[in-house]
Write a structure and sequence with these properties.
By secondary structure, the chain is mostly helical. It has one domain. Helices cover 87% and strands 0% of the residues. It contains 4 helices and no strands. Helix 2 runs antiparallel to helix 3 and helix 3 packs antiparallel against helix 4. The longest helix is centred in the middle third of the chain and has 36 residues. The radius of gyration is 17 Å and the shape is elongated.
């Protein structure tokens, strides 16, 4: 086996960890939404933060680095599926930083500050929408990586 095959293997495994971890955070959001008690939401936020820090973050970084390394090693031209993967990563980051992070901050403040359960529900719904959107972006990049449309 050569270096490219190992990079590709690590890229695919880390992508699966990235998507799987992010999907788990989305499922935790759904479960927390069923009972918007501040303790339930606080537990959700703690678990989501732990998954993000221990799985999603490292897996996404490794997926990006190994993808770039494999592309450079093989001298692959900027094919559509590669371009979409790069665009999807950029979209994922923009949605996460510009939209999801502020909602998470407001949700954390709402659960600690004794906000109304209606405000917490609204924030959870907004967060669920953004998580779903980001998950769809990741899945579209994964689809493009597998099927390589021309």
């Amino acid at each position: 086996m050569n270096t490219y095959i190992w990079l590709k293997f690590i890229h695919v495994v880390s992508t699966a960890g990235w998507i799987g971890g992010f999907a788990a955070i989305a499922v935790l959001n759904i479960l927390a939404s069923r009972n918007p008690d501040p303790r339930t939401i606080a537990a959700f936020l703690a678990n989501a933060k732990g998954l993000g820090a221990r799985l999603v973050g490292p897996a996404s970084g490794l997926a990006i680095l190994t993808g770039i390394a494999a592309m450079l090693l093989r001298h692959l031209p900027a094919q559509r599926w590669i371009v979409w993967g790069i665009v999807a990563v950029a979209l994922f980051i923009v949605i996460g930083v510009a939209a999801l992070r502020p909602v998470l901050k407001r949700l954390t403040a709402a659960t600690q500050g004794g906000s109304s359960s209606e405000e917490v529900r609204v924030l959870l719904r907004r967060q669920r929408f953004l998580l779903t959107l980001n998950l769809l972006v990741l899945l579209s990049a994964f689809w493009a990586m597998i099927f390589k449309p021309e």
